[in-house]
Amino acid sequence: MSEIVLFHSALGLRPGVHWFADRVRAAGHTVHTPDLYDGEVFDSLDAGLAKRDALGMDEVVRRGAAAVEPLTPELFYAGFSLGAAPAQMLAQTRPGARGALLYHAAIPAEVFGGWPEGVPLQIHTMEDDALGDVEDARELGGELFLYPGSDHLFADPDLPEYDEAATELVIERTLVFVSRTAAVRGI
What we know:
This protein is an alpha/beta fold. It has helices spanning 15-25, 45-55, 57-68, 84-93, 134-140, 164-184; strands spanning 3-7, 30-32, 76-80, 99-103, 121-126, 143-147.
């Protein structure tokens, strides 16, 4: 089975991130959930973004890179919203990346030097999510799944915007992507 690093959103390493990771683990995968916020979690996006701003995005991405240093380079990198930044950076720059799964966000590829050939990508966001970076996701290429609606963190069961049907599709498509990519690469 595959090894995945799943980075949290601006709300921190909340129970919803662990829940999602446990769903992927139940399929036999190893999932690491690094804490980029030193244990702080938030109930509002404004508070989480204030933490992000206090740290700075460069520090968030640096913490993501530091979290994977002791791990094998042959990883899938995944991230929710804010966590998509370190996931995308690592998929684009760390040799051995198996693939990237970006949930609720995407960053222009050129920010991290262009998308590497042979690294598969899957992106999930709601079609009318103002924070979902749909245009950036389209430009990145890869598989793009747009779900009906405008909620941002729709895959966290502890948040009011949780969409169970969309989340189940995200999990199903994530598992197919990881399994298919691993099979193609002979892992």
